[in-house]
Amino acid sequence: MFINPAARQFFTIASKKLPAERLSTMKTASGPCVSWGRFFIGGFLMRSLHSPFWRFSALACGIFLLLGQAAAQQAQQAQRTQEKDKEKVPNLPEVTVTGTSMATDLQTYPGSVSVVTEQQLEAASTPIDALSSVPGVSIGDDFGRGLGQSFHIRGFGYQSENRIIIMQDGVRRSLSMFSNHISSFRSDPDLLKRVEVVKGASSIQYGGGAIGGVVDMGMKTAEDFVPEGKDRGFAAKLRYEHNNYREGYLAGAFAPKDQPFEFMAYGKKGRRGDQEMSRVWGHINGQPARKVPTDEDTTVAYLQGGFKITPEQKISLSYFDYGMDVATVWQNLWHSNYSERTGPVIGKLKQQDWVAKYTFKPIANPWVDLTATAFHSKGSYDRHYELLPIQYENEDKRYGFRVKNLSHFETGRIQHRLLLGVDYEKRNEDAMMLNDGELSDFGSMPNTYNDTGVYGHIESSFLNGGVILQLGGRYDRFERKVAKHQYSAKKSHFSPRVGVSVRVADGFYLLGNWAEAFRAPTPHETHSNGPLNPHYWYLPNYELKPETARETEIGFSWTKNGLWAANDSLETKLMLFSGRVKNLISLELVRPNEKPPESESYAMYLNTDSVKRHGLEWTGTYQQAWGNVGLGYSRIRQTDRATGRNVPGAFADKLNLHGHWQAAPGLLLGLNVNHWFKPKQNPESFVSQGRRYWYVRKAFTVVDLDARWQPRPWASGPFGRDMEVTFGIKNVFDASYMNAFVAETSQRVGKGRNIYVGLSTRF
């Protein structure tokens, strides 16, 4: 964040607990629901689970055995439920929508896309947790708090969030809202139907910022909370995690098949306490500490309604309200504990979204498939020290619209899909800091972003789908304003894309893609001026150029049904990528022989770096009637072309192995293994305050177990309809995991073992 000299003392206090490895390399400044009360299982499980390792193991095995025995007693339902049970086995969804805004088979899409399913989301307490196994995604450079979770796609994310796009229901999010004190999607996994992660450079669909990729979170509707075969109902869920987290929700929905309207209301309450790490990470008050002070109360409310004007037209309106009350530290990702001098930080995180949609799809007109969306969004983080008269609030407001139309037509034997669209978004960013009653001056705020984009994308299918060619382009016009300086800069950019898939044999495709992405400079990069933190005296740079990324992807996919059995299937896909980011904006030291009046050095944002990025992603899934097994492997190398050094740091190669076994009708058991290989560090070490620190130089492995049990699949019982019990162990062996970004002496050693149990039902 950026503050004036009056607030400089404040940052000096906050920065004292910043780890040494960050101080040495930091290039950016740090910037309605009813209470559920205590859950009835909380006290019992807290007493029984906080025990030595053998009790963890005994309890885990016991629950698995009990689940197996109970499920076996349901064997008489096998004939009636076998086919529906198969539907519960997690499997890679068939299509991607985010990649081109046109439903496309994942296996034939010429790019790197991963989908997080509804089942995977339900097993996580935050959306970022659910992305931990996705190839090309890096997490873990944090202390495990819900308010602050590190996240990177293809080399960019936290502290470089303007180079990725995070969306919920088509509305963009800012993870940290400029301050870098937090990193949160401000979303609810139980409200998400699926999440698509598009990796790599592509601005054609959503405009500037998608240099690292896009995360698109799709919301559930009323139909998703109605019991099978019914037109109305309620849904409820309770979840308990022994690593100090519990939550519950209640939803009511009305979605009759023979009526033109639908409606749902949803409310959730969650609480997260002190988080236990995988081992002792440091000391608090002179005592060895394994737990990290955490106090977070989350509330979520969601209202959604829809009305079919005609069988071909529908309007819908939704309201999403997310809030988190916290007693925490100033920098949530890297600060372990607050000081006695300042006391904890008392804060409130908010996110409110209004989204209105209109769809029109005439049955007899293949030229019209229209979707129009209007939105208004507001996010904020307001906090103050308990013992010091310092208050700081960040605010991010957005509104705009998106209109797109998909047409189907033919020219001879060639089939085409044509997508045309226009987007507009206005964003207002502001901050307010009071230091002992004195208002701080933010040189780059308030500011305004105006972004307009027009795009077209055509897909042509030749030889009955044997060759599919995708051509597209987007023209963006962007304007940046800074109110204080009466500054306004208008520029434009055109982003092309070409993709092709060629079928060379039954189920075997060769894939290729080339795309360009851009990112406009932010007002903070152009207008930072003065001693905005203890480290740097910032100098403005009004001549910054947009960053551009060009990336090529090539690979293949293979799908085979009936490989070893009549009802099995094998899917695998390999994509290699190579690209370059030009005019990368970074904070650089300038005037090395001059000493500023305050701070340590002069610094300025410059277009200095040219970055090379290359790597691969490989996924595979084998499915049978008994379940499935799969793998994912990813590698990314992102280096400065001039020096060969990693930018912004090293990324470890990641291997994911997973599988699910339909042990009995209604019972599904799962295993998930993440292995991070020894990273290739360059540089291997750094010096801070006369001491040398080495970056992480070892491999890590984390194993998870999970189980899902439906006592009476798709049938009513005393606890409702579709009742489901979930159970799992995150990090079974209590193993450490350290992100490749950190030094070996870092306190961020990964969260410890976490046993969870959940109960959900519909009635």
TrEMBL record:
Residues 106-214 form the TonB-dependent receptor plug domain. SUPFAM superfamilies: Porins (SSF56935). It comes from the Bacteria. Keywords: Cell outer membrane, Membrane, Receptor, Signal, TonB box, Transmembrane, Transmembrane beta strand, Transport. GO terms for biological process: siderophore transmembrane transport. Gene3D superfamilies: TonB-dependent receptor, beta-barrel domain (2.40.170.20), TonB-dependent receptor, plug domain (2.170.130.10). Residues 301-732 form the TonB-dependent receptor-like beta-barrel domain. InterPro entries: Beta-barrel_TonB, Beta-barrel_TonB_sf, Plug_dom, Plug_dom_sf, TonB-dep_rcpt-like, TonB_rcpt_CS. One of its GO terms (cellular component) is cell outer membrane. GO terms for molecular function: siderophore uptake transmembrane transporter activity. It is a multi-pass membrane protein. Its main location: membrane. It comes from Ottowia cancrivicina. A motif (TonB C-terminal box) lies at residues 746-763. This is TonB-dependent receptor.
